[in-house]
Amino acid sequence: MELSEALRTTGSVREFTARPVDGALLYEILDEARFAPSGGNRQAWRVIVVHDATQRRAIGEAYLDAWHDYVAHLLAGVVPFSPLASDEDRVAAEGQRAAALAKSRPDGFAETLAEIPVMLVVCVDLGVLAATDRDLDRYQFAGGASIYPFVWNILLAARSRGLGGVMTTMATRNEPRLVEILDLPANYAVASVVALGYPQRRHTKLTRKSVSEFTTIDTFGGAPFTS
Ligand SMILES: Cc1cc2nc3c(=O)[nH]c(=O)nc-3n(C[C@H](O)[C@H](O)[C@H](O)COP(=O)(O)O)c2cc1C
């Protein structure tokens, strides 16, 4: 597959066929993904392939709990988990928690996470992460840039082999539970739970903003950069 086509058409896949994913194929995917860039080439990632049904269920529960919070935010009309959320936003979302629970559907992705063909948990060694914004007095996110390209590489490598999937961060909201389930050392954080499998269907017409909607010349308020 052409790289350009892959970049333009790799959408999230959350529904999978029952076809199992061969371990050797998963190894190949990780073997390709490992060429992702990272700050200082520190490669702070650590991947756990979760086979165990009890662990999968527990991770699924941690995910689902956070998913209900996500839906509660949407019901409250606030951006889910924005670092700039006000106290009012938080209270409004909390107020919708029961309504969010009532919206749960048994066959949803969040509700059936334990059954995905491949469950990868991508963890991060915070001790070697290059987080250049760590001393700024604002929400810090630069460290993620050393991990999520790797996660995205997993998804692209999967796509090129006929698989699909999605990177998720929902369960990180309940990271302490994951630390216990996966027996993570103290300096590790959870970047993503990645679902992979053979897609039931694939959507390739992605909805994204145009370049000139998010690119300007010289200053933030400068003229839009157009073709
Ligand atoms: C950092 C990050 C976190 C995400 N977390 C979740 C998640 O927790 N659960 C989920 O179902 N999708 C998650 N997604 C997938 C996004 O919902 C998806 O990329 C976006 O809606 C665009 O969908 P599309 O590529 O299918 O058009 C995440 C994506 C990214 C990049």
Written overview of the protein:
The protein has 227 residues and is α+β, with helices and mostly antiparallel strands. It has a single domain, classed as NADH Oxidase. Helix content is 36%, strand content 12%. The protein has 8 helices and 4 strands. The chain has helices at residues 3-9, 23-33, 53-76, 87-95, 97-102, 148-159, 175-182, 211-214, and strands at 45-49, 118-125, 164-168, 188-197. A 4-stranded antiparallel beta sheet has the order 1-2-4-3, sandwiched between helices. α3 packs antiparallel against α7 (175-182). It is globular, with a radius of gyration of 19 Å. Bound molecules: flavin mononucleotide (FMN). Flavin mononucleotide binds at residues 11-12, 14, 109, 166-170, 206-207.
CATH class: Alpha Beta
The number of helical runs is 8
- How would you classify the quaternary structure? single chain
Which small-molecule ligands are present, each listed once? flavin mononucleotide
Residue-averaged pLDDT: 97
> So, the CATH homologous superfamily?
NADH Oxidase
How many domains, as an integer? 1
Produce a short descriptive summary.
This protein has eight helices and four strands. The chain is of the alpha+beta class. The model has no long low-confidence stretch (mean pLDDT 97).
Question: Topology, pairings included?
Answer:
Elements (H helix, E strand, L loop, with lengths): L2 H7 L13 H11 L11 E5 L3 H24 L10 H9 L1 H6 L15 E8 L22 H12 L4 E5 L6 H8 L5 E10 L13 H4 L13
Antiparallel strand pairs: 1-2, 2-4, 3-4
Helix pairs in contact: 2-6, 3-4, 3-7
